[in-house]
Amino acid sequence: MNGTHDETERPTTHSLATMRAEATWFLDQHHLLGRNSVRQFGEDFRRFLEEMIPRIEQLAAHRAGDDVPARVALAAGEEARRRLAEPEAGELNGEVARASRLARSAVALCDHHDALTGTLMCLVCDRVIAEGEASLPYGRFRSGESAGRVHPRCTGTLRRHPSPVAGQQDSSM
Fold first, then answer.
1. What is the residue extent of each domain of the chain?
2. Which of 22, 39, 106, 149 is 20 to 30 A (C-alpha) from 126?
3. C-alpha distance from residue 59 to each of 49, 68, 85 (Å)
4. pLDDT (tens digit, 9 = 90+) per residue, 26-74?
């Protein structure tokens, strides 16, 4: 245990929401942050991923072997593990790109955690839609299934998806 938290704690819904918000904010930046800020964000994402990968694996282990959400979540965990193994970049733009990849993995693992635990998130505001709370379908797949849910108050709001750092290719999960 350290001064701020028990190191054996599992991520809570609050910490998932906080990390999702932090990673989304980082990805949404249009101005280059300073090296120390980028390094700190990268370390936050790294610590979070190191906690979440085993949690995702544990949740997926309780599912059938052919469960598609579990298999996709495991693949996202493997991609996050690969990104964790990337060395630090020597220059600031490279380090921003590396931290951005870690941030994308953090958001993806939050989403996979929600899917595996049955937590329903609003696709616009990224807040939990509580059981019994009003929500509306957001888009449809060809099969007719809903692509997700949104709060009624969020229906007129457009969500802006962050784009990768200029000139960088990324395989988002």
1. 13-154
2. 39
3. 15, 13, 23
4. 999 988 899 999 999 999 999 999 999 999 999 999 999 899 999 999 9
